[in-house]
Specification:
The protein is α+β, with helices and mostly antiparallel strands and 348 residues long. It contains 4 helices and 24 strands. 37% of the residues are buried.
């Protein structure tokens, strides 16, 4: 319908009235509710805080805790095996006694992974006790006696040995003596993929406690310690004050490995364990139950206790009264399994 000029004027008057009412309502509302504006110079939206966690085996604080299994590797320590490869980045290393007074290492990797580890050697019964305490880890070794192989089958670990992906014989790039049994090495990425596909599960917490500041109840100077693993094998640790770690010697000589880093232990833990001759005639160590221990950290020596009721229980390092977890310094830890604790230093 066509509008006349009169109707247009009337419509304009009505529109103007409505506009005045709306303007009044808006003005009144603005008098009551002020717009919310961010303070001058402040960001409009706060950055989200990064969630930090601790590496379960070293206590190092990080925003990138890896979700993967622990990989446990049996490493030789015979003279022909040195210098070993990969030990410089292990979270934990156990030194244990085998036949002939020789020692071997059980190296545990989680927070960092080397490219290669070795030389790899055979398993012993004590290995089944130790590595079962890491949940469902991967375990790499070069072979085992039939009775030990049967024990390995009863553990929660995914085990791999020579012939599985990751193992290779080296002709001199890593091996100082490129002939068996000192030439067997492990490619860690391949090994970790293999054990993961075979059922190894991401590592959880062990219940260990870490603290940057040392406890106040040290009883002796812990600047050095000599651990008699056997008459033929003596391990010495000397505290490096500048670096804040312990440096290892083997029978009076500096202990070196192939790799970008020197061996540096934030903690040296010595567990007094039972040694015995097994039914097969081989010397064995027993790390089940409980016993006395010492802990060296920050140049100080502390009395301690250890506890591991069953093979699948994590090893616990406790205060001298056995009631609380001992606070370890964040960083790598080396653990030793001799028959007797080293004597405390004499006070002159």
């Amino acid at each position: 319908m066509r509008r006349t000029p009169t109707s247009l004027v009337a419509a304009g008057v009505v529109g103007l009235a409505v506009g005045l009412v709306v303007f009044a309502l808006v003005r009144d509302a603005s008098d009551v509710i002020e717009p919310s504006m961010p303070p001058e110079g402040s960001p409009e939206e706060a950055e989200p805080e990064t969630e930090l966690g601790r590496m379960p085996l070293t206590g190092v604080v990080t925003d990138d805790v890896p979700v993967r299994p622990a990989l446990v590797v049996k490493v030789s320590n015979s003279p022909e095996a040195r210098p070993q490869t990969g030990l410089d980045v292990a979270d934990l290393v156990y030194e244990e006694l085998v036949e002939g007074g020789v020692t071997r290492f059980l190296a545990v990797f989680h927070s960092r992974l080397p490219d290669v580890v070795g030389p790899v050697r055979s398993a012993r019964p004590v290995d089944t006790q130790v590595m079962a305490g890491f949940g469902h880890p991967g375990f790499a070794y070069s072979g085992a006696r039939p009775e030990v192989a049967a024990m390995l089958e009863q553990t929660p670990a995914a085990t791999i040995t020579e012939g599985d992906p990751g193992f290779f014989r080296d002709q001199g790039e890593y091996a100082s003596h490129p002939f068996a049994p000192h030439d067997l090495f492990l490619q860690v990425d391949d090994a970790l993929a293999t054990v993961t596909s075979a059922g190894a599960r991401p590592l959880g917490g062990l219940g260990w406690v870490f603290a940057q500041d040392p406890p106040a109840d040290a009883v002796d100077d812990g600047g050095s310690v000599e651990i008699a693993m056997s008459e033929a094998y003596r391990t010495t640790w000397q505290y490096d004050v500048a670096a804040g770690v312990y440096r290892r010697q083997q029978n009076g000589r500096p202990f070196t490995v192939t790799g970008p880093e020197r061996i540096g232990a934030a903690n040296v833990v010595v567990l007094e364990v039972r040694h015995f001759v097994g039914d097969s005639g081989y010397p064995e160590s027993d790390v089940l139950g409980s016993g006395d221990a010492i802990v060296l950290r920050d140049g100080q020596r502390y009395p301690a206790r250890w506890s591991k009721p069953t093979a699948t229980d994590p090893l616990q390092i406790l205060t001298a009264d056995g009631l609380e977890p001992f606070p370890l310094r964040p960083g790598p830890t080396w653990l030793h399994l001799p028959a007797r604790l080293p004597e405390a230093p004499r006070s002159d």
